[in-house]
Write a structure and sequence with these properties.
single chain; mainly alpha; Arc Repressor Mutant, subunit A; Tetracycline Repressor, domain 2; 70% helix; 0% strand; transcription; Homeodomain-like_sf
Length: 210
């Protein structure tokens, strides 16, 4: 008895094609990347792309998830492994300097830049949700130090997280503009020199001080 076939197998490596799509969206952004650009980079025809990945927006959604799993884990890893929020965020910024300037990848962070100038509310919302999720992870780590008495009880953890997140977004754009790893590492150091002042400001904001 023979087993019935389920159609012709794909003639391309799906994971390799996804990686090529990731790098293209990463380098050009969502709006500037066309289906023709994608098929050329991925080495497949449009019918194969649609069959394997769906339309452009669906493909981009998979790209974003793949990017987070492959290139974005340095943030949750540092938050989980370092003993304090300050140490974890110092490591996040230092690692960001390295990740955003990797020689084997487009520079910057796809999640921070690929949606710039997009006309798609769906795409903008997807990327905003990922950035907000990372902001929440940082805020939770800071709040854990507040709860443990390592930071003042009136510290606004989310505001302090916003400070770090804003620095990282600036580092991503600077990397795309040509900043080197060494320059961004120095930026990271300068940002953390201001950690105590940022924490003080977060406390003053919570109390409503001027």
């Amino acid at each position: 008895m023979t087993t019935p076939t389920r159609g012709r197998p794909r003639s391309f490596d799906r994971e390799a094609a996804l990686d090529k799509a990731t790098r293209l969206f990463w380098a050009r952004g969502y709006e500037a990347t066309s289906i023709g650009d994608l098929t050329a980079a991925m080495g497949i025809g449009a019918p194969s792309l649609y069959a394997a990945f769906g339309d452009k927006a669906t493909l981009f959604g998979e790209v974003v998830r793949s990017f987070g799993a492959r290139y974005g884990q340095f943030i949750p890893r540092a938050l989980a492994e370092e003993p304090t929020a300050e140490a974890a965020l110092r490591r996040c910024l230092r690692d960001a300097a390295a990740e955003y300037t990797r020689a084997d990848c487009p520079h910057g962070c796809l999640v921070m830049t690929a949606g710039m100038n997009t006309n798609s509310g769906e795409i903008a919302d997807m990327l905003r949700e990922m950035r907000t999720r990372n902001l929440g992870l940082i805020a939770e780590r800071i709040q854990a130090d507040v709860d443990a008495g390592l930071l003042a009880p009136e510290t606004d953890a989310r505001l302090l997280a916003r400070y770090v997140s804003t620095v990282m977004q600036g580092m991503s754009q600077a990397a795309r503009d040509g900043a080197s790893q060494a320059e961004l590492e120095r930026v990271a150091e300068l940002a953390m020199y201001g950690w105590d002042q940022a924490a003080d400001t977060a406390r003053m904001t919570t109390r409503g001080d001027k």
